[in-house]
């Protein structure tokens, strides 16, 4: 579904992403794990068009997208949920959801809302509430729901567990698995919580200083000595 070939992204003269080769097959959850500052967010922004790679290719469903604008990439079927639950805090839940579907027709938005309410019933009871007054878990649900309004084929998640209580983190990750298994949405997740991310993934990449240093199946990474010592504290 998604393939990156020797991708390099710069901030000025600083090379933040260095020769990344990565793929996301269909019907999977793939994780990118690593410490803070490893380049995980930069990689997601490169995929969704916010940043343009200086070198390399990004292919989605067999077509190169590395030169496309973010809105064109959304239309192609990729949505990103940014780190930190970026919402329009002084707008209502419904207004945020409608903005998430701004590329869709009114009929599409109506149908998407019904699906959202079945996935996140709590949001239906909060439609008129200002997004900034929701709890942390509800805000994360809303950010996911906004991305789903565009009916993506591939969902990019940047640190979805950040700042959430353990029980809420588990609820969010359970919902991510449901989106993949029941709704058929492919997931590429970036996380510092390595154990939690790998536990729901079929395959994973370890990113360090802008480079992929280790990759493999979930079981391979969880058993890898470097991963266990560096990221799992074992």
Protein model, in words:
This protein has about 230 residues and is of the alpha/beta class. It has a domain at about 1-65 and about 155-165 and about 190-234: Rossmann fold (3-Layer(aba) Sandwich). Helix content is about 40%, strand content about 25%. The protein is built from 10 helices and 10 strands. It has helices at about 40-45, 70-75, 95-100, 105-120, 120-125, 135-150, 165-180, 195-200, 220-225, 225-230, and strands at about 1-10, 15-25, 30-35, 55-60, 65, 80, 155-160, 185-190, 205-210, 210-215. Helix 3 (about 95-100) packs parallel to helix 6. The longest helix has 16 residues, at about 165-180. The mean pLDDT is about 90.
